[in-house]
Every structure is written in structure tokens, then in C-alpha cells.
Amino acid sequence: MMLGATGIQSKELYVDGANGDDSVSYAQNSASSPWSTLGRAMWGSTNINSPNAGQAAQAGDTVIVRAGVYATTQGTGERYEPIYNPVNDGRPGDPITIRAEGVVSLQSNTSTIGEPIIGTLNRQYIVWDGFYIDEINVDTKADTGPVVVWGSSNITIQNLTVRGKTVNWGDNHSAIRIEYSTDSLIRSNHLFENRGASNQYNGSAIILYDSSGIVMEHNEIHDSQGGIFIKGAYGGTANHRITVRYNLLYNLGVGITHGIVNDAGTAFGARTYQNIVHNSGSGIVFIGYNGSSPANIDVTNNTLYANNLGIHVKPGTSGYRDVVIRNNIILDSSYGIQGEDVTDVSNITFSNNIYSSVGTLARIAYANHSLSSWQSNFNQDLVGSMQSDPMLVNAAGGNFRLSGASPALNAGLDILNMFGGGAINLGAYVTGDEVIGVTSELVDPPKIPMPPTLQ
């Protein structure tokens, strides 16, 4: 046994589908005496409807699930309640960690009408790490997905591989859904083939609702209707922003979409930075659902390559407040900025962006604009922006770093104060050493100082 940071006695628990025995007690469980089902570790019993908290994984424990296929016929029938919802909470410094050892495939074939298979409902300090889910082998339902975090806090979902499916309903369909949750981390997941919602936004692999303090980083998302959709997420204090960073997204209908962000009118909303979106319909999208959002959003240092639309501004711009689009590279796109159905972009600030090989730099209110026309008619991209080849190392080959002669070098402003302020490079690779997409080097997100007030 080990002592956690809070002094809790913790242990490693083992699940082995081929060699385990669910009659083993919690105290007796060990590497040589494992349980046979994941439900035994999560519920403390073999019956989802008869949990036993004293026999389930406790705060500070790590559940090691050995390689194999784990299938269940037990379900919840609720779109917000995962089958393997832990019966216990973790604690600060002593989470409950459920970790796959090797390839662990999770499946469900329930008699209910469908539900997520892993995640949390009304839990805190839980880590799900390293599982494989093919949604064709999971009974999901409309307006949810195979992984759901609901009403929870301090949850980590990492290192998952989720292959989605094309569903036959028109409601939301996601691989990972976060709702009514706070202070959680969605990182280093590989998500693909998530399709079938009524539109490309609602078919995003990650969908976020009414949550704050969520960090989505180092995910690789591709071949789906959408990537990441902040559909209904309220901002909060400086430490409770929505953060979208270091993600690699491609072959999508839409990459990253900002919807109801900061609807509550607080001072902090979302930061979307150092992401790469390529070969997709739209790179980064804003949707104005109402008269008070999206607001307080910084979209900085992203690289948008070979998308039909680079930045897409949707109707409802009367609600936009303090939206900043800066230090981005928009390359090889039909439209650099698409706002065909809007007339007012005065609450958005574009600056220090570089555009290259765009068919139309900006289309606003059914009129096309060159960079100079965009600047003179809308007072946008007046500071530090240019139309020039950013000279990436090999964008077509997937290397989006800046070459030594790039005009994007030191052409940006560090408004997020990530590097102490001052001039920084444009695009996702500010230093050139960043890992964009899935990484094995997982560290807690650093504390980012508050940005200076924008003039």
C-alpha cells in the first residue's frame, strides 16, 4: 500500500477478464488475485443496481485493467449516466484512477435504450486513462456519446481512443460530452469517425455544455462532422476559463466552434490557442445564439491550413463582445474570413494575422473584400497583419513549423502573456518545440497569468 498526498491509504487494484474472480474482496485484491470485471471495481459489486461503496475503488486507488475485451449487458438507460460510473469520489491529491494496461476494449450490449459506457455522473477527482472504445460496440443514444462527464469536477479523461459511428438520429452526437462540470481536463485523446448529427457542429467529437474551467488539449480529432464545440459553456474567474490548445484537427466539417461562451457576462471566457486545423470545411467558427455571447474569447496563434473557410463568423453578431482574433496563420483557403450573413464585426478585433493563398480574404454581407478593403471598410487587421507566404517548413507534408526566413517570425503580440509578453511568432508553433496533437508527455496545465487589458 501507498500513502497519498492527503495521507489516505491507497492501493493498486487489478482487473483481469481472463483470470480474475469477482468474489475476491477489496482487501484481498492484488496483482495475483484480480477481479474479472470492471463493474466490480467501479460499483463494488457485480450488479450496477446494488453498489457497495466499501468494496469499490476508493480515493487514492489505481485500478489497473489488463488487456482484453470487457463487455457488459448492464446499463443505466440514461444519456447522462455512464455504465461504469464510480460509486466513490476521489479527493484532492488522491484521485481514483482507472488505467488500461495494454489494449483494453470496452463494449456494451444492454437491454436499455442506450447510455455512455465510461465517464462520471456527480463525481469528483476521477481519472480515466487509456481505454479503447469502438462505438459500434456500445449502445449509445441521441444527445450523448460513449464518454460523458456530467455534474462533476476535477475529472481527467486522457489517452482514450474512441472510434465513433454514423448514427441515425438527428440530435447531438459526440465521442466525449462534458456538461454541468468544472475544473476538468480532456487531453491526449484520439477521436475519429463521429458522424450523424443534424449538422456538422452538433456532430463534433467533443461537445461542451454549461461548464467552466475545462481544458481540452493535445487531442487528435479527424474524419468527423466536427472537432470541438463549446456549445453552451459559461466562463468564470481567471482560473475557470475554457481552454482549447495544442489540438490537431483535420478532415472535418468544422474544426473548433464557439457558441454560448461567457453568456453570464463575467470577465473571463475562453482561450483557443496553438491549435492546427487543416483540410476541413471551416477552421474556427463563432455562432451568436443570443444577445450576450459569444464573449471574452481570445483566438490566438492557431494555424489554419487548406480549409474552405479560415475564420467563420455566423449570424447574431450583436451579442459578440471582446472577441480577439490575433497571431493566426490562415493559408490555402477559399475564404480567409467568412461572414457572409453578418453586417457588424465591430465587437471583434482582428490583428497580427497572416493570410496567404486565400481566394477571398474576407466576405462580409455578401460582398468580397481584399485585405485593404477589409481594413478600410471595417477597421480590421490594421495592426501587424499582412498578406504574405508564411513559409512553413512543409505544410502539405504536415510540418507546420516556421522556416528560418518566415515573415511570421516575431510578428505577433503575446496578449496571453505565455512567454512574458512582447513579440512572438505567429501560428501554432511559437517556439517550434511544441507538441500539437496526442502526446505521451502529460503534465498538468501551467498557470497562465492574466492577459493585459486590450486597447
Automatic annotation (TrEMBL):
Origin superkingdom: Bacteria
InterPro entries: PbH1 (IPR006626), Pectin_lyas_fold (IPR012334), Pectin_lyase_fold/virulence (IPR011050)
Gene3D superfamilies: Single-stranded right-handed beta-helix, Pectin lyase-like
Coiled-coil regions listed: none
SUPFAM superfamilies, alphabetized: Pectin lyase-like
This protein's name: Right handed beta helix domain-containing protein
Species: Woeseia oceani
